[in-house]
Specification:
- By secondary structure, the chain is α/β, with parallel strands linked by helices.
- The chain is 23% helix and 38% strand.
- It has one domain.
- It is built from nine helices and 19 strands.
- The strands form two sheets. Strands 2-1-5-7-9-11-13-15-17-19 form a ten-stranded mixed beta sheet, with helices on one face. The chain has a nine-stranded mixed beta sheet with strand order 3-4-6-8-10-12-14-16-18.
- Strand 1 and strand 2 form a beta hairpin.
- The longest helix is centred in the C-terminal third of the chain and has 18 residues.
Length: 435
């Protein structure tokens, strides 16, 4: 077992920690403790059950994990449709380049009253920010270990606080551009107070052999509503590790959708914890992979209180020698009666060399619940292709129509009309490139 990669991160901390946000406050000892915990556990490896299908340690040995430089000069976006996927939607736009806030590309207009936006450095003294950074959900130790890496090295990120009863007037679009080789460690903090609401888009794009380590901590107050959309289309040499941790108070409502069409290796983790009754969480996604791409979606939903609902659907198509992974768990704790928790993953293999690993789980300690999980993996129906070709539709177009129809059930769950159309267009263009 090699510990070289772990030591490289420890060395990176030694070089940079004095200049990281909060270096002279309460966050400094928290960073040191997080680094010690990470150093003890090391970079996750495949002998850990939660990482059985994703060899992050081996992948990181091949990339530069020193901090990506502050980008100099113009920022050139990749020439891919994803770079402008949401361009036609009126949004507040915040841009990060190599994990650092870029004022020149971000909106500077005044934000609505009751909406606070800060950089990570600006909020390290705030109690609400401290609470989000310190939060623990009681999930797997492996998840905490990789979050500890982010806590030790986080260099920038957005902190968004929406006051009680306030609705963000239009979506907030967070654009993460990886323009140079190297690592970026980003921590985003989102707090919606009681009855507040917001829509957040995330776009992750780039042309570099980068390692992006992103943790987003979200707390939803009573009756708060968050729609969160993520688009991942980074470079073929890039590694993307993202963790979404959310707590939902009573009657809170979360709709999260992720579309993955790019990046060499990605691991997207979501952890949802219900802390109040009557809350809802929809954690959904779609992915279209080709070449040697590897995408791992890991979802844990923790029903700790009664009368909450969680639904999860992930659908994907895999071409070439690509690999897909879905690991999900619905945990229903003792006393969490009237829980409705469901998970489904479905994959379509377009190539003999493509592969899919799926492991949905239920762990239930209450007896009055409605819970279900399922998984299917298959290939395009030859009969369906023959049927369409018999009606004058060329084979390439027939395959495209069948793939889009397969993914449409998942794309229907994108919780924003214009963004849903944009994501459908991206999937259609992906198939045109792959076919």
């Amino acid at each position: 077992m090699s510990e070289k990669t772990t030591q490289r991160f420890i060395d990176a901390y030694a070089v940079s920690h004095a200049n990281l946000p909060g270096a002279d406050g309460w966050l400094a000892p928290r960073r040191a403790a997080a680094l010690a915990a990470f150093a003890e556990a090391g970079v996750p490896h495949r002998r850990l059950e939660d990482w059985k299908y994703t060899d992050l340690r081996r992948a990181l040995e091949k990339v530069d994990i020193a901090a990506a430089p502050v980008h100099q000069g113009a920022v050139v976006l990749p020439e891919r449709p994803s770079s402008s996927a949401f361009a036609g939607i009126d949004t507040h736009k915040i841009v990060f380049v190599n994990g650092r806030f870029h004022a020149g590309l971000s909106d500077t207009v005044k934000w609505p009253k009751g909406v606070e936006r800060h950089s990570l450095a600006d909020v390290t003294h705030e109690q609400w920010a401290k609470g989000l950074i310190e939060r623990r959900f009681g999930q797997t130790k492996q998840a905490e270990d990789i979050v500890d890496l982010n806590t030790a090295l986080m260099a920038d990120g957005i902190a968004l606080r929406i006051r009680k009863g306030v609705s963000l007037d239009k979506p907030l679009h967070l654009v993460f551009v990886n323009a140079d080789d190297g690592a970026s460690h980003t921590r985003n903090l989102v707090l919606l107070e009681d009855e507040a609401s917001a829509t957040i888009f995330e776009s992750h794009i780039g042309n570099a052999a980068s390692f992006a380590d992103i943790v987003t901590d979200v707390a939803l107050g009573q009756g708060a509503k968050l729609r969160h959309l993520k688009l991942l289309d980074d470079a073929a040499e890039a590694i993307h590790l993202a963790t979404l941790r959310t707590t939902l108070a009573a009657r809170a409502h979360l709709e999260h959708f992720a579309l993955t069409i790019g990046t060499g290796l990605s691991r997207s983790q979501s952890f949802v914890a219900f802390t109040g009754e009557g809350a809802y969480a929809g954690i959904d996604g779609a992915y279209a992979l080709r070449g040697t791409q590897h995408a791992d979606h890991f979802c844990v939903t923790d029903h700790a209180v009664p009368n909450c609902t969680s639904h999860t659907l992930f659908k994907g198509v895999l071409d070439g020698a690509s690999e897909g992974v879905f690991q999900g768990k619905v945990l229903v704790r003792r006393g969490a009666q009237k829980t409705d928790g469901r998970q489904m993953t479905q994959a379509l293999l377009l190539s003999r060399d493509a592969s899919m690993n799926a492991k949905p789980e239920l762990e239930i300690y209450a007896d009055d619940v409605q819970c279900a999980h399922g998984s299917t993996v298959g290939e395009l129906s030859h009969d369906a292709i023959f049927y369409l070709r018999a009606r004058g539709i060329p084979e390439k177009e027939a395959r495209r129509l069948l793939v889009l129809a397969f993914l449409d059930d998942a794309l229907d769950r994108v919780p924003h009309d214009e963004a849903r159309t944009a994501m459908r267009d991206l999937v259609s263009h992906w198939f045109g490139e792959a076919a």
